[in-house]
Amino acid sequence: MAKYEWLAQIEAMVGKQYGRIYAWDKVNEAMVRQWCEVMGVDNPIYTDAEYAAKSLHKQLVAPPAMLQAWCLAGFNDILAPGSTTENPYGVLKLLEAQGYPAVVAVNSNLHFDRYIGIGETLYYTTTFDSISEEKTTALGTGFFVTLKMVFFSEHAGDEADEKVGELLFRVIKFKPAKKPESKGAETAMPKMLRPKPGISDDNRFFWEGCDENELRIQECNSCKKLQHPPAPVCMHCHSFDLGYKLASGKGEVYSFVVMHHPHVPPFDNPNPIGLVELEEGVRIAAGLVGVTDGIAPQIGQAVQVEFNTFEGDLTLPQFRLMPMKESS
Ligand code: ZN
Asked: How far does residue 238's CA lie from ligand 1's centre (Å)?
């Protein structure tokens, strides 16, 4: 007997299968090539026809991890022709109606039966696989709902379509846990602090320099070259004998970015960050100060270091923009 009467109605739906969602395109070389490019996959069985012909596949195949990609609706959320429109997520809507509005995906397992070749037509069906007992987690109280998408390769004529893989997808549909009552906004929202630098034996001199209002740039005692950020070894001559040199703090804007969105506390918004080329020849990334609202820093604009202390004990080098020289 279910804990809630309405739950029996949902449990009766377990095993229900929804539609066929077709792929917009046959499995094709162009999408495979682009997917491999963005994912950084360089296995030639996906992109080099000559190589693939000599492989055990005897032809180009698609990366198995692309399985779900073929049948996605796309940006406009329009399903490919031949697809059914019945919503397999109806069970989630029923849970929403019972006061479980929030959803978090918790588990996704892909299983492949075989490689898929260029030219195959894919579709999938969705089965409402299971719903758990009501459970309470740190997120809140709700139900784990498991859906199973089974992918098929469509065969011509009377030949039965062939299962090629499946995707198990589990979400928790829940009532969010109540936050402890708070007296005012200040206690509800803890103040965000700046991330602290990771200080190690290799870069301690730099941060201690900031505390002394000195801009210390790592210098190799063997070849006398400079490098930043600090490293355990000289990148020029591989010497471990490293010291530092005091920089003048003068430089110019080599590049910059002004962060507008998202607004990340505790940083000011907009948040200008510069890549400053010091007159000693090395570059350093740091916050820019003195940026007038609406006027972007200029590449090549002169800057001067200043040291600003945040939250009592965090002293950072920042670079103040110097007025631009009038150009004639
Ligand atoms: Zn060196």
From this structure: 6
CA of 239 to the centre of ligand 1 (A): 5
Q: What is the pTM of this model?
A: 0.55
- Which residues are CB-contacts of 226 (< 8 A; sequence separation ≥ 6)? 217, 218, 219, 220, 245, 280, 281, 282
Instruction: List residues bridging with 316 in a β-sheet.
Output: 308
Could you say which of 3.30.70.2190, 1.10.600.10, 3.10.129.10, 1.20.1250.20 is the CATH number of the domain covering 7-176? 3.10.129.10
C-alpha distances (whole Å) from 243 to each of 122, 216, 236, 237 are 62, 9, 14, 14
pLDDT, mean of residues 202-226: 97
The encoded tokens of residue 255 equal: 């590049």
**Separation of alpha carbons 318 and 249, rounded Å:** 10
Tens digits of residue pLDDT in 107-160: 899 999 999 999 999 999 999 999 999 999 888 899 999 999 999 999 988 889
Q: How far is the CA of 198 from the centre of ligand 1 (A)?
A: 24
**3-state SS, residue 94:** helix
Q: What is the CATH number of domain 204-321?
A: 2.40.50.840
User: Which candidate, 293, 248, 296, places its Cα nearest to that of 273?
Assistant: 296
Instruction: Give 74 Cα–ligand 1 centroid separation in angstroms.
Output: 53
